C-alpha cells in the first residue's frame, strides 16, 4: 500500500445516560475520534460522511464540511482529536464512514473510518 496518503483513525465511545431517554427510544452516544496522518504527505480533512446504523437496521447518513467546524491540516505524524455525538433509537448500533482529504500535492483521497460500536455499557458481552 502507498504510504504517501495514510490516515489512521481511532474511535472511543461513551454512552450519555443523562441525554438519553430509553423510554422514548433515544440513545445518545459521545464519540471521540483521533485522526493521525501516518503517511508521508501533509493533508487537510475537508469533509465527512458517516453511516450510522441502529440495531433495527435503520440508517442515518451524515455529510458535511470538516469536523466540529474545523478542517484540520495534518503534517506527517500529527494528530487531531475531537468529540461529537450521535443519537440512535436502539441501545446498540454502529458507525462507520470516511473523511474526504486533500493532500498538499493536490491529490484527493478518502480516509476510511473503520466501523465501531455504539452500545450501552453491559449491553454487549
> Which percent band covers the strand fraction?
over 45%
Order of helices and strands: EEEEEEEE
User: Which descriptor suits the 3D outline?
Assistant: elongated
Largest sheet: 5 strands, antiparallel
| Rg result | 16 Å
Number of helical segments? 0
Oligomer: single chain
N-to-C terminal Cα separation, in Å?
35 Å
Structural class: mainly beta
Low-confidence parts: none
The overall pLDDT, averaged over residues, is 95
Could you explain how this protein is built, in words?
- This protein has no helices and eight strands.
- Helices cover 0% and strands 60% of the residues.
- Strands 3, 4, 5, 7 and 8 form a five-stranded antiparallel beta sheet that branches. A three-stranded antiparallel beta sheet has the order 1-2-6, with no helix packed on it.
- The chain has strands at residues 7-15, 27-37, 43-54, 59-65, 73-74, 79-88, 92-103, 108-119.
- With 125 residues, it is mostly beta strands.
Which tags fit this structure?
elongated, mainly beta, single chain, three-stranded antiparallel sheet
Brief overview, please?
The protein is mainly β and 125 residues long. The protein contains no helices and eight strands. It is elongated, with a radius of gyration of 16 Å.
Describe the secondary-structure layout.
Elements: E1 7-15, E2 27-37, E3 43-54, E4 59-65, E5 73-74, E6 79-88, E7 92-103, E8 108-119
Antiparallel strand pairs: 1-2, 2-6, 3-4, 3-5, 3-7, 7-8
Amino acid at each position: 500500500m502507498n504510504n504517501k496518503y495514510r490516515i489512521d483513525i481511532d474511535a472511543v465511545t461513551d454512552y450519555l445516560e443523562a441525554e438519553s431517554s430509553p423510554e422514548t427510544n433515544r440513545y445518545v452516544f459521545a464519540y471521540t475520534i483521533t485522526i493521525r496522518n501516518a503517511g508521508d504527505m501533509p493533508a487537510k480533512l475537508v469533509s465527512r460522511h458517516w453511516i450510522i446504523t441502529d440495531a433495527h437496521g435503520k440508517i442515518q447518513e451524515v455529510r458535511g464540511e470538516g469536523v466540529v467546524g474545523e478542517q484540520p491540516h495534518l503534517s506527517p505524524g500529527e494528530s487531531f482529536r475531537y468529540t461529537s455525538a450521535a443519537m440512535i433509537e436502539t441501545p446498540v448500533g454502529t458507525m462507520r464512514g470516511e473523511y474526504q482529504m486533500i493532500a498538499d500535492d493536490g491529490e484527493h483521497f478518502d480516509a476510511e473510518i473503520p466501523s465501531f460500536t455504539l452500545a450501552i455499557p453491559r449491553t454487549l458481552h
